[in-house]
Amino acid sequence: MSVRRALLSVSDKAGLAEFAARLSSLGIELVSTGGTAEALSRAGLPVRKVSDFTGAPEILDGRVKTLHPRIHGGILYRRGDPKQAAEAKAQGLEPIDLVVVNLYPFEATVARGAGFEEAVENIDIGGPSMLRAAAKNWQDVAAVVDPADYRPVAEELAASGALSEAMRRRLMEKVFAHTAAYDAAIAAWLAGPDSFPETSTLAARGGTRLRYGENPHQQGAVYRLGREPQEPTVPFAQVLGGKELSYNNLLDLDSALACVTEFDRGACVIVKHNTPCGVALADSAEEAFRLARACDEVSAFGGIVAFNRPVDAAAGKALSGLFLEAVIAPSFDDGARAALAGKKSLRLLVSPRLGEPRRSWRRVGRAVRSIAGGLLVQDRDLRELEPGELKVVSKRQPTPDELAAALFAWKVVKHVRSNAVVFAGPRQTAALGGGQTSRVEAVKLAASKASLPLAGTSLASDAFFPFRDGVDAALAAGARCIIQPGGSVRDAEVIAAVDEQEASMIFTGVRHFRH
């Protein structure tokens, strides 16, 4: 497919002048709109204004520029169809062979807090129409929506004087994906963050193929949803080195990140198979890691580590002594990088927002999971307890250390697979049990795995105790304070078990299942 005429209309003018100059040097006529035409003229390039091309002025404050039969006819008529070619000639249509368009910056506009009217004015109409027209007629017309494609398109034109079928097909696929994502962003904004609309639209970008999915016989990929959020996330983290991240690595990293972002104080979380196996608080990353690892050194092997403080040389040296899959942190200093340089397979990820105060983040969005034939969508579990919500239901009040340990364990237990329990001191988990079909089994599992003393710990449970057996098992293992939602028909029986042992119990009224 040869190119004689190109229509350019872009909001993002990065690389535009250079690309247009290469097109012009190949004898391709440039047709352009408003601000794009001015930018090309300032660059010294010959450009034909759309209003001259159509014979009609731009009207309605620029709302109507390219919505004209001479534009869409020039794009859409089939060159190889004698009837359409004759009709195009009779109508005086001039063929447009290359359409270069990127759309009004709608997402950037709403991201900076623009009002409703301004946001609506940044919904592009002519751009998507031209792109879809060019993409539909891909056998005769090429559509470029991404400035990253300027160079390969120009190089192919310079080398052969034409654009191959493979290139046009790739550009066509990219256009329809782009316009679908654009419309999805508009629909999501109109629905609002608290709505569950009748039709749900999700726009995922930047698909990267993974080596495989959960298992080698499954294919997999990772995508980014929307613009970079104002909070730490794994898909937008910078990977400094190591092997390619796997599907399971990404799931584990997301779990570790979700847990470590619960804390304002310096924290370290170690995750294995999508559940924490050690969590600790400390002023230094090295001490936090040491304390977290001590909770379950066996499970920590081959795990994922998350920090909410920079990793320095001391922490890097501590990390280097254990086989790990990946580490995510706000940053790694030169000493840490040097200490970990010998770990060629270790993935290091940087998420600078991890080092910012949590109150500065804007934590929004929904959690989406797939099931066969559909999607489950819910609000993310970002619920945090207010001091006034705690209700001591036992005769004995918890000591200050027991209360601190209970609140720490409560932050951790929401990230353990339910049924879930966590034994902890004020700044270090002592044992974790999760993924069990009964709560008493979760308690017994945690106690059986404990490598740290459980005497005097507090225990958090993600849901209520349906019977006293789980409480009896927790107290027998050494817990002296239990924090749980409450709400069982046997709450009185459960509280009585605590009072018999002169322990303490706190109700939160909040459940934290994680299935």
Question: How would you sum up this structure, described in words?
Answer:
This protein has 515 residues and is an alpha/beta fold. Helices cover 37% and strands 19% of the residues. It has 19 helices and 21 strands. The strands form five sheets. The chain has a six-stranded mixed sheet with strand order 8-13-12-11-9-10, sandwiched between helices. The longest helix is centred in the middle third of the chain and has 27 residues, at 165-191. It is elongated, with a radius of gyration of 30 Å. The two termini are 53 Å apart.
The share of residues in extended strands comes to 15-25%
Number of strands: 21
**Numbering strands along the chain, what is their spatial order in the largest sheet?**
8-13-12-11-9-10
Intertermini distance? 53 Å
Low-confidence stretches: none
**Class by helix and strand content?**
alpha/beta
Q: Using the CA coordinates, give the radius of gyration.
A: 30 Å
How many helices in DSSP terms?
19
Question: How can the largest sheet be summarized?
Answer: 6 strands, mixed
Mean pLDDT: 92
Helix-residue proportion: 25-40%
Form type: elongated
